[in-house]
Design goal:
With about 100 residues, the chain is an all-alpha fold. It is built from 3 helices and no strands.
């Protein structure tokens, strides 16, 4: 009986180590992808803001009535979502391929 418990304990430790290693790797890749995507999107937003600041007040008022701000928010949100999904997809395949799970 003690031999069986030792084998079961070793199996559980092995499984938990594998799961924890995968989770930590996926989180690290996700963090790097999020940081890079956030940097790119903030630079794009800054560029748009600086270009819109040079417009005459009348044009800005008409754009505000037309909902240009909402449209820009939708576009940037769509890009952020797409980048996040691409990061999850590529990170997941990297984790599977490096830790021996079936592709």
């Amino acid at each position: 009986m003690p031999l069986f418990m030792a084998m079961l304990g070793g199996l559980l430790v092995s499984l938990v180590e594998n799961i924890v290693a995968r989770a930590i790797t996926a989180l690290g890749i996700g963090f790097v992808a999020y940081t890079g995507a956030d940097l790119v999107l903030e630079q794009a937003k800054g560029l748009v803001r600086s270009n819109l600041a040079g417009l005459p007040v009348e044009v800005v008022a008409i754009g505000s009535m037309m909902g240009v701000g909402t449209a820009l928010t939708i576009v940037f949100s769509a890009y952020a979502t797409r980048m996040a999904l691409m990061g999850i997809k590529s990170g997941g395949s990297w984790v599977r391929s490096h830790y021996g799970a079936a592709k």
